[in-house]
Structure formats: structure tokens, C-alpha cells
Design a protein that fits this description.
By secondary structure, this protein is mainly α. It has helices spanning 36-47, 49-58, 82-90, 102-118, 123-139, and strands at 2-3, 18-19.
Length: 141
């Protein structure tokens, strides 16, 4: 769980100021950049409240500010992704096993999910297939 900002200004991150993280966008710059001030300015701009709201509206990523992701679900016409907002609001953390072969089954998982997102009627079977393939890879380690 990663903290939001200190909304109530008491110097700590309280339970109501926490969120879950699931495939978010982390803006960063190389320490070796020739333009550190410009890079910092861009990151600061991308991370301000108004631009976090805009990124959520465009479907780029859920915002890093509580309540700023409300329009994220509307960015994906024909897709019900309210579960992601529910996770953020409830502070649920999604986790899955990591192993030395994680990238193998994660890549395959992504390939399979694309088809399921395009045809939601296949989602249950695809998730079952992903679990079986992931478990087989983990068992082989």
C-alpha cells in the first residue's frame, strides 16, 4: 500500500489517505539527464492534481490523488472497469506470485487477456487458463 498525500495536514498518512497500486504509471527521469530541472518540471506537471485528473479522464492511468480517478472508468467505452476504482477506494491490493520466470507467464497472461477484453464472454475460461499455465510454470521451478 502506498500513501496518498497528507490530506488532513497532520504530518502522517492516515488510513483514509491510502490507496492500492495496480499497474500504475510512475513518472521518472534519468539521474544522468542533461536537463534535470526541465525533467523535474515535467514530472511535477504530470503529477499535479489537474493533470492527474486529465490523465484519468483520458484513460492513461488512475490518479495518485484520492477521488481524482472518478472519470477513469468512463475512458473505456464498452468496458466495465469499475472494479479498479473500487479497489482504489477500498484500499485493496492485488498481488500475484513472483518467481524467476514471472516474465514468461506474465507475457502470456497479457496475450490471453487481450482476447478476453475484446470478448468478455470468454473471461472466465481465459482466467482459468491463465491460472493453470501460471501454476505449471511455478511448479516447474
Amino acid at each position: 500500500m502506498l500513501p496518498y498525500q497528507d490530506v488532513n495536514g497532520n504530518g502522517q498518512v492516515d488510513a483514509g489517505e491510502r490507496c492500492s497500486i495496480y499497474n500504475g504509471v510512475g513518472w521518472a527521469a534519468s539521474a544522468d539527464t542533461d536537463y534535470p530541472d526541465e525533467a523535474w518540471s515535467l514530472i511535477e506537471w504530470l503529477c499535479n492534481y489537474d493533470n492527474q485528473v486529465k490523465q484519468a479522464e483520458l484513460g492513461v492511468t488512475m490518479a495518485g490523488y484520492k477521488g481524482a480517478s472518478d472519470n477513469y472508468a468512463d475512458a473505456f467505452e464498452g468496458m466495465d472497469i469499475d472494479a479498479f476504482l473500487q479497489m482504489e477506494n477500498e484500499g485493496t491490493l492485488i498481488s500475484r506470485p513472483c518467481s524467476k520466470y514471472t516474465t514468461q507467464w506474465e507475457t502470456r497472461m497479457g496475450e490471453l487477456l487481450v482476447g478476453a477484453w475484446n470478448d468478455p464472454s470468454t473471461m472466465k475460461a481465459v482466467c482459468r487458463q491463465i491460472a493453470e499455465e501460471m501454476n505449471a510454470t511455478l511448479a516447474s521451478e
